[in-house]
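Subject: design request, 231 residues
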């Protein structure tokens, strides 16, 4: 019997679990430290009733929904930026379907897990970068910017809006998956008021009732809303 996979950290070894997901006619194997699917799972996690873990190395339902959404789209050749990549699932699906993917997170531990999952799923070509949204230095433009449950903190909305406005290529789009958090919906509504176009596809994640409803919001610039720095 093979030894279980672990993440070795300064606070000790964190055992990893594996989940198999069937998407786009193939099976994806994702390592994580726990899956947060239902509201009850999330409440236990946030209360710290179980081992307190960094958010990013937990598998969240928004990432599963976004991966399903990407599996329905033609992303071949697109330049893709994933914010707060976590376990890496959405970006891995995009890369395996032919996209050129950059995954970012502010924690090296999280990116290490991303690399492990990329290797397991045949997507070693993904670029991984440490990046803090409040000290953003990436000047590249991307056809598609991805985020799974990244809008929960109102204090970060200004920084995230700056990334959207500065790094989205002309004609590009955002795909943001979210479990309909009030702060997230408020930010997206604010973007609509300033000229962005927002549409939504709803996914249901989980087998154990009650399943979790996740919105995948597609956001594009409306007519007359120019990219930052564009002429």
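Subject: RE: design request

Done. Sequence follows.
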């Amino acid at each position: 019997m093979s030894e279980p996979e672990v993440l070795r950290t300064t606070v000790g070894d964190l055992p990893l679990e594996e989940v198999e997901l069937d998407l786009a006619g193939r099976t994806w194997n994702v390592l994580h430290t726990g899956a947060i699917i239902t509201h009850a799972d999330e409440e236990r996690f946030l209360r710290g009733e179980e081992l307190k873990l960094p958010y990013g190395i937990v598998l969240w339902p928004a990432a599963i929904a976004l991966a399903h959404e990407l599996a329905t789209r033609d992303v071949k050749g697109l330049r893709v930026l994933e914010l707060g990549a976590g376990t890496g699932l959405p970006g891995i699906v995009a890369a395996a379907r032919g996209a050129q993917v950059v995954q970012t997170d502010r924690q090296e531990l999280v990116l290490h897990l991303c690399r492990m999952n990329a290797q397991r799923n045949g997507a070693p070509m993904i670029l991984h970068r440490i990046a803090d949204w409040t000290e953003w230095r990436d000047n590249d433009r991307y056809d598609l910017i991805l985020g799974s449950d990244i809008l929960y903190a109102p204090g970060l909305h200004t920084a995230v809006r700056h990334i959207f406005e500065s790094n989205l290529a002309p004609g590009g789009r955002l795909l943001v998956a979210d479990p309909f958090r009030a702060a997230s919906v408020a930010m997206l509504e604010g973007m609509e008021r300033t000229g962005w176009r927002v549409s939504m596809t709803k996914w249901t994640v989980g087998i154990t009732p009650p399943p979790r409803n996740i919105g995948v919001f597609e956001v594009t610039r409306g007519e007359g809303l120019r990219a930052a720095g564009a002429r």
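The domain at 61-221 is CATH 3.40.50.150 (Rossmann fold).
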